[in-house]
Amino acid sequence: MTPERLEPFRQALVDLRRRLRDGALEPGARVTAKEVADQLKLSHTPVREALSRLAGEGLLEDRRGDGFFVPELSAADVAVLYRLSEQFLLMCQGAARSPSPPSRSTPAPEEQDPVRAVERLFLAWATESGSRVIVDAYRTTMLQLAPVRRREVQLIDDLAQEAQALQRLADPSQRPSRPTAIQDFHRRRVALAEPLAQLLAPQNPENE
């Protein structure tokens, strides 16, 4: 059966979120409605609506007369985003109603990227709160952090081991150990906010 095609606004929104998450749109990048519309074979109107939605969520900047841009992040921004991620996850652990199904807590067997594996795991933990408000806010923070997390591999050499250790906490019986692990994970990265921000800077040779 052919999958149902998303309506144009939703299609543009999903595609733009994917690009932000996967790093196809880097900090400082300009995003035009025409380019996205041409790539997706959509009219400009729903694409502009999707861009405006993302700007309202803080995922893009609407520079009137100049277009939409992926926000550049300072070291202070990076630190704040990691702290927000930490607090959302801690709130979710405190509000958890029931364990999420194993299939949602455990990344697919083919998942080899430790960054994506941890993102999937943390999102599963967030959903355990049963709060759509918290989950939506956490998803937005994840997208804002996406370009930062793609740079972690340049500064942290044990991402795979760290992901495996966190994965062992996916079992509901290990929930009491999660808050400390969440705090350690994020505070380690807050301490690296300055070099991570430098790696993100558009003029940095390592971004070329």
Summarize the structure.
With about 210 residues, the chain is mostly helical.
Give the secondary structure arrangement, pairings included.
Blueprint: H1 8-22, E1 30-31, H2 33-40, H3 44-56, E2 61-63, E3 67-69, H4 75-95, H5 102-105, H6 114-127, H7 132-149, H8 159-167, H9 178-190, H10 193-200
Antiparallel strand pairs: 1-3, 2-3
Helix pairs in contact: 1-3, 1-7, 2-3, 4-6, 4-7, 4-9, 4-10, 6-7, 6-8
List keywords for this structure.
single chain, 208 residues, mainly alpha, Arc Repressor Mutant, subunit A, 2 domains, three-stranded antiparallel beta sheet, 10 helices, 3 strands, 59% helix, 4% strand, globular, disordered C terminus
What does this structure look like?
It is a single chain. The chain is mainly α. It folds into 2 domains: 8-69, Winged helix-like DNA-binding domain superfamily/Winged helix DNA-binding domain (Arc Repressor Mutant, subunit A, Orthogonal Bundle); 75-199. It has helices spanning 8-22, 33-40, 44-56, 75-95, 102-105, 114-127, 132-149, 159-167, 178-190, 193-200; strands at residues 30-31, 61-63, 67-69. The longest helix has 21 residues, at 75-95. The radius of gyration is 18 Å and the shape is globular. Mean pLDDT is 87; it is low at 99-110 and 204-208.
Helix percent band? 55-70%
Total number of helical segments? 10
The count of domains is 2
Total number of beta strands: 3
Lateral arrangement of strands in the main beta sheet? 1-3-2
Ranges where pLDDT stays below 50 over 5 or more residues in a row are 99-110, 204-208
Radius of gyration: 18 Å
Strand content: under 5%
Output mean pLDDT. 87
Shape: globular
SSE order, as H and E? HEHHEEHHHHHHH
Please, what is the oligomeric state? single chain
